[in-house]
Amino acid sequence: MYLMKDITRDGAKVLRERAKPVTFPLSDEDKKLAHDMMAYLVISQDEEQNEKYHLRPGVGLAAPQVGQSKAMAAVLVPGENNEILFKEVLINPRIISNSVQHAALAEGEGCLSVDKDIPGYVVRADRITIAYQNEAGEHKKVRLKNYPAIVCQHEIDHLNGVLFYDHINKEHPFSIDPNAVLIH
Ligand SMILES: [Zn+2]
């Protein structure tokens, strides 16, 4: 399983590369990667289990963040009452459509690969449709809005060498169009 020491930090070249497409059927190595990335998220969100591992809680983890330039990311988005809003390992994902309406997390975004706090709105699309393959290689298409849509855009960015703060307006970090949805 992955520990904090295994997480690639900002400055590493792999975080700025375009991740390579994953081929099917998945190799044993890729199956383990998918499993271990999701296991990180599950344990990091479970206070009891995490007492042992001290993982920084995460809702998404992309393969480049564990040093592997592969188009794969695990996403585990909990809701307010601990229900699961979205859980999937996205393989070769891409955004096939997005809303004109913008959205941003009111508290800004964070990233397991970025140790410092970088304030500012990360302006994204409020609603997206993504296409991806699951671990069985099946082609899936899903429509997401609000928080799960933000998380998936953050993760897909990782597969394109983009980090969240790239989207923050340098001069006016809290500028956002008045119609944008601020997600709390
Ligand atoms: Zn990240």
Which word captures the global form? globular
Strand order of the largest sheet: 1-2-3-6-7
What ligands can be seen in this structure?
zinc ion
DSSP E strands, number: 8
Distance between the termini: 31 Å
Strand content: 25-35%
- CATH names the topology as Peptide Deformylase
Question: Could you name the CATH homologous superfamily?
Answer: Peptide deformylase
Mean pLDDT: 97
- At CATH level 2, the architecture is Alpha-Beta Complex
Number of helices, where a helix is a run of at least 4 consecutive DSSP H or I residues:
3
Strand-pairing-aware structural class: alpha+beta
Describe the biggest sheet? 5 strands, antiparallel
**H/E topology pattern:** HHEEEEEEEHE
Low-confidence stretches: none
Helix content: 10-25%
The rounded Rg comes to 16 Å
CATH C-level class: Alpha Beta
The number of domains is 1
Binding site for Fe cation: 111, 154, 158
EC number: 3.5.1.88
Protein name: Peptide deformylase
Cofactor: Fe(2+)
